[in-house]
Amino acid sequence: MTAAEGLAHLLAGAGVGSVVLHGSLAAGGFRPEQSDIDLLAVLDGGLTDTQAAEIERLVRQADVGGAAGIDLDVVAAEVAGAPDRMPALELHLSRHDGPPAVFEAERRVRAAPDLLAELSMARAHGRAIVGAAPHEVIAPVPAEWIIERGRYWLTFWRSQTDDVQHAAFMVLTACRMWRFAVEGVHCPKAQAARWAMDRDTSLVAIRQALRQLDHGPAVVVAGNDIADLLDVVLNETAQRG
Fold first, then answer.
1. DSSP codes of every residue in 73-134
2. Residue 83 to residues 44, 115, 165, 210, Cα–Cα distance (Å)
3. How many CA atoms lie within 13 A of 82 on its CB side?
4. What's the rounded Cα separation, in Å, for the pair 61 and 58?
């Protein structure tokens, strides 16, 4: 049994009805020690404090195998089955084993617009480990909602191009947003980056980010090159949002 399967079955024991594996483990592109285990858990009704505490304990103690950590979203079945622009989130847990080690927990988030992309990706490429298939528990999310939220982050990152720690993340995620806006396709970051390079060979930040992904933070992703990419993606997504 894989680390993801083991955790999913433990979550089922804590009262979760469906557990969907998504992200790089489901869609391809998983990188040992770099990629997380991405899980979406769907349950009937709200999450009790006792359930939330037990799920947090399970995530903290879970064996992640060769993954870098775990990202888990827990949503109510009625939210997954009929999402709106600001879907409610019962629980978000993010564990990254570092260095440095980081653990984040959010409970009862009344409006979580970033959940829209997670729901859409889980429906498109997710694999049910426990419970019903993703398309049976997750309704389609309008593409314009996902593009709108993506443009929020693209605009924010445009003022953060000197953020060395998150430079490659910004570039590769922008490529994913770009491809989704143009083709309606969710795909792993590296695959989206190659698609974007084929579309515009002048955007050197993409090559820099891919090299950093392969060789580590010693590879610099230049701020002015990040800005050039973000400007292009903002323009492209404006035409399709």
1. EEEEHHHHHS--SS--EEEEEEEE--SSPEEEEEEEES--TTHHHHHHHHHHH-EEEESS-H
2. 15, 9, 33, 34
3. 1
4. 5
> Which tokens belong to 136?
């049976």
pLDDT in tens, 181-228: 999 999 999 999 999 999 999 999 999 999 999 999 899 999 999 999
List CB contacts of 129: < 8 A, sequence separation 6 or more. 4, 5, 8, 9, 19, 20, 21
Name the residue ranges covered by the structural domains of the chain.
3-137, 143-238
Type of residue found at 141 = V
Least confident of 21-30, 119-128, 198-207: 21-30
Q: What is the DSSP letter of 19?
A: E
- Say how far apart CA 119 and CA 115 lie, in whole Å: 6
In angstroms, rounded to a whole number, what is the distance separating the alpha carbons of residues 66 and 86?
A: 34
Which two tokens mark 194? Answer: 């190659």
Length of the chain: 241
Q: Which of 164, 238, 189 has its CA nearest to residue 38?
A: 189
124 with 154: CB under 8 angstroms?
no
